[in-house]
Amino acid sequence: MRHRGMEMKRKCCAALFLTLLCAGSATAGLLDQLQKFGNPDSKEGKILSGATQVFSSAKEMDYKTERAIGESLALEGLQRFGKPVNNENLQQYVNLVGNALAANSKRPTIPYQFAVLDSPVQNAFATPGGVIFVSKALLSLMENEAELAAVLAHEIGHVAGKHAISSIRRTQFLQGVGTITAANLKGDKGKQFESMIGDLQSVLFDKGLDKNMEFEADSAAMETAYRTGYDPRGMISVLKKMQRIEASSVKKGSWFSTHPPLDERIKRLQAQLEKYPDAAALAEVANRFAKRVK
Questions:
Q1: Is the pLDDT of residue 220 over 50?
Q2: What value does the mean pLDDT take over residues 190-197?
Q3: 3-state SS of the chain?
Q4: Which end of the chain has fewer CB atoms within 10 angstroms, the N or the C?
C-alpha cells in the first residue's frame, strides 16, 4: 500500500507544480512585511514588543507571537546575509517546492515563505513561524530539485519541531512567566526580553542549534522529501558536495559553522535510507531545476 501511495505522489508531483505555478508572486510584500518589525509604532512592532501572549515552558506559545519573533529574526538575517535575489521566477520556484514539502511535513497548517538570498556564504536557515532562507551560494552547489527539496525540508523540520522556540523556552526569563504584555516588558523585563531575542540571533546565525535538533531536522528532511515524491538521498548528496568544498569555504555564518560535522550527519542519514528501499525510483527533477536555477 505504501508503494502504491508513493506512485500516486510521484504522478501528482508535476501536476502539483503546475497548479502552484499559478499562485501569486512568491516574495511580494515579504520585505515590506519584515521592515515593519523595525518600527515600534507599527502593529507588527507592538506584537513583537509583547502585545500578545507568550507562555512559560510548561505551555505553548501562540502562533502570532511565534511568527512575530520569527519575522524579526528574519529581518536580522537579511541584514547579515543580504537581500533576496532579484529573480522573481527563481523565488517563485523555490516557494513552490518549499510549500509542496511543507504540506507533507509534521506541521502543514501554518503559512511558510521561502526566499533565496544573494549571499556568497553556503547557508540556509529558518526562523520561528515559517520564514525560510537559502543562500545563492548553497543553491549553486545543487544539481537537481531533490537536493533543493532536501535543504528546504531540513529547514521546515526546524520550524515543525519548534526548535528555536524550544531554545527560547529554556531561558530563565520565561520560567514562571505566564503572560508578557507591553506593561511588564518595561524596565528590566523589557531588557531581558530584548536580550533573549539577541541570544536567539546568536544561536541561529553564529553558534547553531543543539546538534540533536540538527539530527532531527536531517531525519525529518529525508522523510518529508520521500513523502513528497523526491529521492530522499538528496540530503546526502548535498552534504557530500559540501564536504568537497569545506576546506576552501568561508566558515563563519555558514552551514559548516552552525551544524554538526558532515561525516556524522551523512552516516546517520545513510542508516536511515534502509527505510526507503524504493529511493532510487523517486524524482530528482534535474531538468526543471536547471531551467529555473542555472
A1: yes
A2: 61
A3: CHHHHHHHHHHHHHHHHHHHHCCCCCCCCHHHHHHHHHCCCCHHHHHHHHHCCCCCCCCCCCHHHHHHHHHHHHHHHHHHHCCECCCHHHHHHHHHHHHHHHCCCCCCCCCCEEEEECCCCCCEEEECCCEEEEEHHHHCCCCCHHHHHHHHHHHHHHHHCCHHHHHHHCCHHHCCCCCCCCCCCCHHHHHHHHHHHHHHHHHHHHHCCCHHHHHHHHHHHHHHHHHHCECCCHHHHHHHHHHHHHHHCCCCCCHHHHCCCHHHHHHHHHHHHHHCCCHHHCECCHHHHHHHHC
A4: N
pLDDT at 206 over 70: yes
Question: Which of 38-52, 165-179, 199-213, 268-282 has the lowest average pLDDT?
Answer: 38-52
Task: Please tell me the pTM assigned to this model.
Answer: 0.77
Residue 114, SS3 per DSSP = strand
Whether 57 shows a pLDDT value over 50: the answer reads no
